[in-house]
Amino acid sequence: MQKKILASVAALAVLAGVALVGPSASAVTATAIAGKGSSFANGALQYCLSHYDPTSGDTVTYTSTGSGTGRTEFAAGSIAWAATDAPYSSGAPSFAYKTIPLVGGPVVFAYNKNSGLPAGLKLDAPTISKIYKGTITRWNDAAIKALNPGKTLPSAIILAYYRATGSGTTANLTKYLASNSGSAWTSGSNDLRAAAGGTLNAHAYSKSTSSVIADKVEATKYAFGYFDLSDAASANVYKASLKNKAGQFIAPSASTGALFLNGQTTIRDTTSPMTDGTLNIDFAKRISGAYQLTVVTYGLAPVGSTEKSRAVEGWFKYVVNTCMPARAAGLGYVPLSGALKTSALAQINAIY
Fold it and tell me: 84: burial class by Cβ within 10 Å (0-12, 13-18, 19+)?
């Protein structure tokens, strides 16, 4: 009997030891992870981090600086993660990392409401190209009038705002213009002036972030510019409809953007972190009902068995799997879905 009691006590002691040692062995350290980058995705990321409450106790911060700054500082190791609207083309990190889609959204062409301009203007890629190159300088140009019959347009000069060098939004815009405008643009360039051949509209002005351009377009008569739908929704501006390859003029929205993104393919090249998990966006693809200038913001994550990688993995998983499916559309973004979401989650699960 005594042996049985002693055996039971020993077994309980072993179980107690497992109970005590187990959590200690698997415990995590609450980690603070700072990120920088895309101003395009700032609205989505700020919302998600303000609602992020992981059991690990990790904290996340994000500064909207523009994609180029995010990529540069991530490669230098000065931030834990970054968000960018275009993958690396050069200057990639020397350490292991992944490029993972987090959220999508339309790039909106917006114009000032207090200029006597009518709501619901229609634009196409050739006209937008000419506005930024300066061959169209006034709102009542024949090309704009032809797209908008019956609308009264003022003869005022178009003040065309654009993103400063390094913008991932601009990199996507130049791809779109190179594919659709019938004019020479350097596809994928994040420098609009250089992409246009060195010369822009004499009344074109560069600004640092999407939100700054949104503010300028809202406050400046006859202003025109491009930025994300989230900033367009919160600013008091008109949004133009954009002609797609199906010949339809489509207003930017979460649903029309989703139609476009879901028609794209994911690059899976495990030999290259620059492309593995990124989206091969064909801006000339014919998709009925789709808003044709819809883009993706990528997260840059360090790969490894560190607390930083663990924390970034948890954060990215929350954005893609929880926060954006519930809130993206209401914020003016497009959540990942279908094969794109499956691919993104597979990449996230390989961070740590």
Answer: buried
